[in-house]
Amino acid sequence: MKIVLMQLMGRGGAQLYTSQLASALSKTNDVVVVLGDYLYEKSHYDSSDARFYFVKNYPSYLLMLFVGMNPMTYVNLYKIIRKEKPDIIHIVHEDLILGFFLVLLKNRYTVVTTEHDPKLHDGEHFANRILYYLSRTLSRNLSDAIIVHGQNLKNYLIEKKVPAEKIFVIPHGDFSYYKKYSTIIQEEKYTILFFGLIKDYKGLEFLIKAEPLVAQSIPGIKILIAGRGDFQKYQEMIKNPDHFEIQNRYLNDAEVAAVFSRAAIVVLPYVDASQSGIIPIAYAFGKPVIVTNVGSIGEVVEDGKTGIIVPPKNSVALSEAIITLLKNDALRKEMGANAFRKMQNELSWEQIGRETMKVYRTKLIR
User: In what order do the strands lie in the sheet with 307-310?
Assistant: First the structure.
C-alpha cells in the first residue's frame, strides 16, 4: 500500500509521533512523508524507509498564515499527491493549511486524520480558537476517518455530531526512541518531574502548591520543571526555591532522556487535556506516573499498577500520591516495571502500525 503522511506544523512530541508511525508503516508499505521543513530531524527517521518531501513552513502561527494564504502552497502540495498517487493520505497532525487542502482532495483520495486534541485546551487565546475551529470543522467534515487516542475522545466527537462509524480509537504509541540517548545518569530518589510545554491547562500551580505538603514528610524533595513557556507567574508561587530546579526552555532529545532518567516519578497534574505523549516517555524509562483523570489520560494509566490517578485541581490528593510513591521504593519500582511492560505490549509502534493499517483497509473497502 502507498501511504502519504502529512504534517506541516507541531514541534516536539507531534513531530516524533509522525516519525515513529512512518517507521512502523514503512516496514511493509511504501511510505511518503510530507513535512514542514523545520520539523525534519534525521535522527527521528534512522529506522525508517520512508521517502520525503519538504514544504516551507514556520512554527509561528502568524508566518504560517502567510504560507496558508499563498496559492502556490496548495499547488505544490497537490503536485506531490498527483505524482505519488497514494492509496491513503493520512494527515497526522491537523492544521489550517491541511484543512484547506482537504477541499482539493475531496472525493479524489481516501483521507485519514489523526486528531491528537479533539477538545481545545482551556486558556487558549482568541486567535488559536479561531484557527482550531476552522481546521477541525474542515477535517471532521472532509476526512473519511478520524483517529483519536482514547474512548473518551471518541465520545466527545460523537457529542459534536461526528458520525461514530467515522471515528477510530488507537492509543498513543511509545516514545522509547528517547532511550537511545540514555547514559549512566542515576535516578534521584526524591526527584519529581514535570515535563513539557508550560500552559495553564497543565495544572502546574497545583504541583507547586503540593510542594510544602510533600516537604513536611520528605524534606529532600526536588521538583524538576522542564519545558518552554511563560514561567513568570509560577515563579512567584514558589515558596521554597531550594526544592525546585527549573529548565525553562526547549530540551533536545538527549536532554529529554536525562531528565526522565533522573526522575523517580513523573507528575501530570493537568486540569484539562485530551491525551499526552509524556506518559509513553515515562513508561519507556520505567517511571510510574501521577496523573489527573481528564480527557483520555486515565485510559492509559492503570491506577495502582502503572501509576496513581488523582482528581484535578486537588493539591492535597496530589501530595498524598507523591508521598506514597516516594516513601515506598518497592511499590514505585514495581509500578515502573509494570509501566514499561505496558509500553512494550500495548503501546509499541508495531501494534500501533497494525491498528492504523486496519483503519486504512476499512476505509479503502468502501
Answer: 244-247, 222-226, 191-195, 265-268, 289-292, 307-310
Q: Which of 126, 63, 140, 56 is nearest to 94 (CA)?
A: 140
123: domain CATH number is 3.40.50.2000
* Contact status, residue 171 vs residue 150, Cβ threshold 8 Å: yes
Shared-domain flag, residues 338 and 354: no
State which amino acid sits at residue 241: P
Q: Same structural domain for residues 89 and 114?
A: yes
Q: Do the bridges between strand 110-114 and strand 265-268 make them parallel or antiparallel, or are there none, so unpaired? A: unpaired
pLDDT for the residue numbered 255: 94
pLDDT at 154 over 60: yes
pLDDT value of residue 2: 96
Do 136 and 197 share a domain, yes or no? no
Phi-psi region of 317 (alpha: psi -120 to 50; beta: other; left: phi over 0): alpha
- Domain identity same for 354 and 259: no
Q: Are residues 286 and 166 in the same domain?
A: no
- Number of domains forming the structure of the chain: 2
Local structure of 46: helix, strand or coil: coil
Give 38: exposed, middle or buried? Use CB within 10 Å, 0-12, 13-18, 19+. Answer: middle
Range of 269's domain? 176-346
Cβ atoms of 244 and 266 within 8 Å: the answer is no
pLDDT at 126 exceeding the cut of 80: no
Helices (H) and strands (E) in the chain, counts: 13, 13
Answer positive or negative: Cα dihedral of 51, 35, 103, 117. positive
Cβ(132)–Cβ(160) under 8 Å?
Answer: no
Does residue 139 share a domain with residue 272? no
Its sign, for the CA torsion 88, 92, 98, 103, is positive
Q: How far apart are CA 216 and CA 260, in angstroms?
A: 25
What's the rounded Cα separation, in Å, for the pair 111 and 80? 15
Distance CA 246, CA 244 (A): 6
Q: In this model, does residue 366 exceed pLDDT 60?
A: no
- 346, amino acid identity: E
**Cell numbers of 148, please?**
483519536
Residue 84 exposure: Cα atoms within 13 Å on the Cβ side: 26
